Backbone:
């Protein structure tokens, strides 16, 4: 049984994220969706489980899925959630970003950043404007540098095995011309070997604007999820920064998955 964790705080946004997750996982066998809630005071446990069970009942009427509930005390949300995900060897954490208020956006972004950095498992972020669809086509973005060492094959395959999608591996580099260099041909061969089970298709696009290019690719190829591989804190910060409106997560219309070793 694979575990997918969906943190909830009982807000309308977290309910929408949970609804998205169970719809996305509906009909996939051997998957347990865990509604996770962290509370701060001991006397909040009973109410937390009451509300979790009510949410579970509502979601069970939306889609065919195995759903369970977990609430625990804590004061550090990313740390508690990360520990829980590691304990249950979770394949995926699904989180939402609210775009309704600046404060809420910053709060959710900060927690997501910390969670991605702790790296208990891949983290899927549902952008505010994302509309539910089954995961049939996935785009994996790569810089094609030392792919054997820098590509988190295991965590990515865990997610791909959930959905069994068509895999599109994309590189955006302004230095691409008519033909690929020997370096890119070598790295392409290695990447093809790493994901041979999914028979990937490759795209090398010679432009400067990564985010705009990826969003156009998502539209052109009817991509349902984008996988990105954060290399450093600065990359993660730029990726999720709400002040950069063209950055991938906040301009995306589909879920974005962050996975790294």
Residues:
């Amino acid at each position: 049984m694979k575990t997918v964790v969906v943190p909830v705080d009982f807000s309308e946004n977290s309910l929408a994220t949970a609804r998205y997750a169970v719809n996305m996982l509906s009909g996939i066998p051997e998957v347990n969706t865990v509604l996770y809630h962290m509370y701060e005071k001991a006397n909040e446990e009973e109410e937390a489980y009451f509300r979790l069970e009510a949410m579970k009942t509502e979601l069970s009427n939306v889609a065919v899925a195995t759903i369970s509930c977990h609430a625990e005390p804590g004061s550090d949300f990313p740390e508690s959630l990360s520990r829980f995900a590691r304990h249950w060897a979770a394949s995926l954490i699904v989180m939402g970003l609210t775009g309704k208020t600046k404060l809420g956006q910053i709060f959710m972004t900060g927690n997501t950043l910390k969670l991605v950095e702790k790296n208990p498992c891949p983290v899927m972020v549902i952008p505010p404007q994302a509309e539910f669809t089954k995961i049939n086509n996935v785009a994996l973005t790569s810089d094609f540098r030392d792919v054997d060492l820098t590509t988190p094959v295991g965590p990515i395959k865990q997610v791909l095995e959930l959905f069994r999608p068509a895999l599109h591996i994309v590189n955006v580099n302004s230095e691409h011309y008519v033909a690929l260099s020997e370096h890119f041909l070598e790295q392409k061969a290695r990447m093809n070997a790493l994901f041979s089970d999914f028979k990937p298709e490759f795209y090398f696009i010679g432009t400067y604007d990564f985010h705009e290019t990826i969003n156009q690719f998502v539209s052109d190829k009817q991509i349902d999820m984008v996988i990105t591989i954060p290399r450093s804190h600065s990359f993660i910060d730029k990726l999720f920064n709400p002040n950069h409106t063209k950055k991938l997560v906040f301009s995306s219309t589909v879920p974005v998955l962050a996975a790294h070793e």
